[in-house]
């Protein structure tokens, strides 16, 4: 593994990066310095503790998609190949082959999760470093990044693409029928605050459609809308899993009480309750509580 790492200013000078707390930025730099030659890190929690960063710092990097996380705790730097291009004779492939095979390496050098329609061969054909020379920094310039996501001078088409994706991937929510100027401006703002990668929006909308809460299964019968979703703070909540479905707890039977409830049940049915007004009142309240609970 190489001991020198590089960073492109197109990422670390972006508003999305600089808007994060300094502790979060510091964690990002330390993760980059300790990543393998494909950008994978197997001990992000250890690095986080070592530099005094918090869990929220790591969660924010994941929510903002500066790093991509896997179920086994391994993370990968999303823009790794934009930061670093190693000579082929110095490149050591990652040992996290299974995680690497779930990713697609885009033309602009950023990783993104594969969709079910994308072939595994797409990744393999572009993964190895090209030749023995370091590529120039111009290939990761702002122009190539923007062209990859929205196309030069094609902002309206990108906005329409985002709206069409929402309508397609979130059929349970009210569709976007009119792409107003206000909506376009909010979408374009997300290019800096959320992502300029259209695949990230696919992941976001798919996550929304899986959420029962966002589809109206809540006490208020409230459901999310496109306008609510394109607010940056709401995107962060969705990505961080605030609206993920919680495991449904099996309702206890009438006699499956914990220690407190068992004591209350015994007190309600105690022989000495009758004839004692205070205990009778307490018993009725406990019965009502138990009936509501069970």
What does it look like?
The longest helix has 17 residues, at 277-293. The protein has 294 residues and is mainly alpha-helical. Residues 119-126, 130-149 and 253-257 have low confidence and may be disordered. 24% of the residues are buried. The protein has three domains: 9-144, no CATH class; 150-239, no CATH class; 259-293, no CATH class. A hairpin with a 5-residue loop joins β4 (103-105) and β5 (111-113). It has helices at residues 9-12, 15-18, 22-33, 44-50, 55-63, 80-83, 97-100, 121-124, 142-149, 155-169, 181-193, 198-210, 226-229, 232-239, 259-268, 277-293, and strands at 40-41, 67-69, 75-77, 103-105, 111-113.
Strand order of the largest sheet: 1-3-2
Number of domains: 3
Helix content: 40-55%
Tell me what portion of residues adopts beta-strand conformation. under 5%
* SS field, number of helical segments: 16
Q: Major beta sheet, specifics?
A: 3 strands, antiparallel
Q: What distance separates the N and C termini?
A: 59 Å
Rg calculated over all Cα atoms:
26 Å
Order of helices and strands: HHHEHHEEHHEEHHHHHHHHH
**Rough outline:** globular
Number of strands: 5
Structural class of the helices, strands and pairings? mainly alpha
Sequence stretches where pLDDT stays below 50 over 5 or more residues:
119-126, 130-149, 253-257
Oligomer: single chain
Mean pLDDT reading: 79
